[in-house]
Amino acid sequence: MKPRVVLVTGVSRYLGTRLASTLAADPSIERVIGVDTVPPRADALPVLGRTEFVRADIRNPLIAKVIAQAEVDTVVHMNVIATPLGAGGRTAMKEINVIGTMQLLAACQKAPSMRKLVVKSTTAVYGSSPRDPALFTEDAGPKALPKSGYAKDAVEVEGYVRGFGRRRPDVTLSVLRFTNFIGPHIETPLTRYLSLPVVPTVLGFDPRIQLCHEDDGIEALRRFTTEDHPGIFNVGGSGVLLLSQAVRRAGRLSVPVPAPTVSLVAGLFRRAGLVDFSPEQMRYLEHGRVADVSRVAKELGWAPRSTAEAMQSFVERAPRILNHETVAAAEARVLGLLGARPTSQEEPARA
Amino acid sequence: MPEARVIPLHGQPAEPAPKVAPRRRARASATASAPAPAPMPAEPLPSAPEQQPTDWERKLAGGLAFLRRRITGDYDVDEFGFDRDLTHHVLMPPLRPVYEKWFRVETRGLANIPDTGGALLVANHSGTIPIDAVMTTLAVHDHHPAHRHLRLLGADLVFTLPVIAPMARKSGQTLACNADAERLLSSGELVGVFPEGFKGIGKPFSDRYKLQRFGRGGFVSAALRTGTPIIPVSIVGAEEIYPIIGNSKTLARLLGLPYAPITPFFPWLGPLGAVPLPSKWIIEFGEPIETAHLGGAQAAEDPMLVFNLTDQVRETIQSTLYTLLMQRRSVFF
């Protein structure tokens, strides 16, 4: 069923703005209402189009009035935030994430017009440990529940969303667990991390990472908002990159840091305002996490571009420190200097 | 930029101009057509028939191309983290002399491994450190006509250790759990498992060639669910490389390891004691035990069937081990 009135929470942040503007461009949707505690950035206003902005805190019962008065039938909940930097500390972040979701769900439960709820969650709910299966399917539980930060919030949010689903079985409920976002514009802890000229990694570990192109994230959210696909879905690119490989592709240098000093280094980076990595993301830098994304492809008949392609779009945005053409030229130079005739043999790198 | 000076090494007249020019041209056209500044593969160049590159030139070019791929990250890893490029060029080559010269591994029944499709290789485990796993992988890759990669299932401990954990993944291993085993088997991979685990590899020398308990039969249910054949593998020779005559339980507890081996040479001789004894190895790949006709996922829910099949595999390996031991002339020849 096509949505009539869509409410997007967290509209002032990058992905929220982009989703709202995409939905606003769809003439079949009557109204798009964006909610956030801060107004959208000035440069985002033109792209938001006919989106109506309501400055409200979802932690406040005011949100119930907005939903009831506008007869909202579809809510896209994107206000689970990943980093305490923008929220004003971990306590405020937890409040926005958990209490905000509870308030929003309470309002949705009361609204007779509600037909659909789409929640942007994260694959971080699976945790990250050496005893994990290589790929997490949607029904796999984490070996150890995330104990802190964003991942813990996301687990709690999903718990409340499940509760909501039990109380309002008539509402189509989609939970999208996204992998790390990357792309030409988006700013996340991971993109800031990979933009450092020298990337610190954990000595003796090389995690597999999985990425989702920002455009594909928006496209997935749009499809789940405008079409009915109930259930839990992992959304991200197929395939993986090793962290070392991603750093090399970005033309950066990695510096392995011994595990006991990692939290010290992370603290330094946090204080310097470079990258904000929380402890559970530190575990991610050791063990990584990969989700099985076949279910969403089967459900939608569409799949996000692969991890390698998503990485490529990011690589193009920042100049490489270590230029790949220089490396190739150096190779040719060395061959020439040694007088080796070019051979026709090229080992297949990718069999 | 001045042209690179070419030093003739083999007394042949070096001709830099025709060499360099086509390469440049090829690169220019490649950049024009490719939208992404992806690192260029060293294009195969048409070389004159009388100018066949010599062996060292081929090796040098291959080595440099490998280096370039590693520096620019231009290689693929699969979802399990298997890095084929690294495995072929770095991990496997130094093991070949060990395989051929030190242990003189003899393989039997390689034809029992299918050329395509999933199969589960189940082997006995021994030798203090899992060299038998490495040698079996090499045997299948180098000597099977289809040059297949054996994807091993490793213990939890492997994936918690720094350096070892990423190496294990890059060489094609993954965690021994049903989800991973079934995923690999159903995607048609050759999977290797050592159900004895630490009980087998860390057993005292006096218990050599006595199979330990075969876990809980998880490997059988994985094969049943995916309908893939089980191939029993018997490895003779690995028991003698580091004969365990003692086990320092206190040290093992301190280090968080399942056992801390003491051999006649280790730790007494220091690093020299870590050199494995040059025993003669025989690896026999047995006849496949088909599971496709047994009823798939339903059969995996039948514990009696799983236990019986586990026992059958275990008995097959045990009796093959005894037969091979009878045929072996001595430990070292």
Numbering strands along the chain, what is their spatial order in the largest sheet of chain A? 3-2-1-4-5-6-11
Number of strands of chain B: 9
Q: What is the typical, i.e. mean, pLDDT of chain B?
A: 85
Total DSSP helices of chain A: 14
Report the span from N to C terminus of chain B.
61 Å
Portion of residues in beta strands of chain A equals 15-25%
Largest sheet of chain A: 7 strands, parallel
Structural class of chain A: alpha/beta
**CATH topology-level name of the domain at 84-90 and 102-241 and 276-327 in chain B:** Glycerol-3-phosphate (1)-acyltransferase
- What is the residue-mean pLDDT of chain A, rounded to a whole number? 87
What is the CA-atom radius of gyration of chain B, in angstroms? 24 Å
Query: What form of chain B results from the Cα inertia axes?
Result: globular
What share of residues of chain B is helical? 25-40%
Query: Could you state the order of secondary-structure elements of chain A as H and E?
Result: EHEHEHEHHEHEEHEEEHEEHEHHHHH
Radius of gyration of chain A: 22 Å
What assembly state would you assign to the polypeptide chains in this entry?
heterodimer
Name the strands of the widest sheet of chain B in spatial order. Answer: 1-9-6-2-5-3-4
The number of distinct β-strands of chain A equals: 13
Low-pLDDT segments of chain B: 11-49
**Can you identify the CATH superfamily of the domain at 84-90 and 102-241 and 276-327 in chain B?**
Glycerol-3-phosphate (1)-acyltransferase
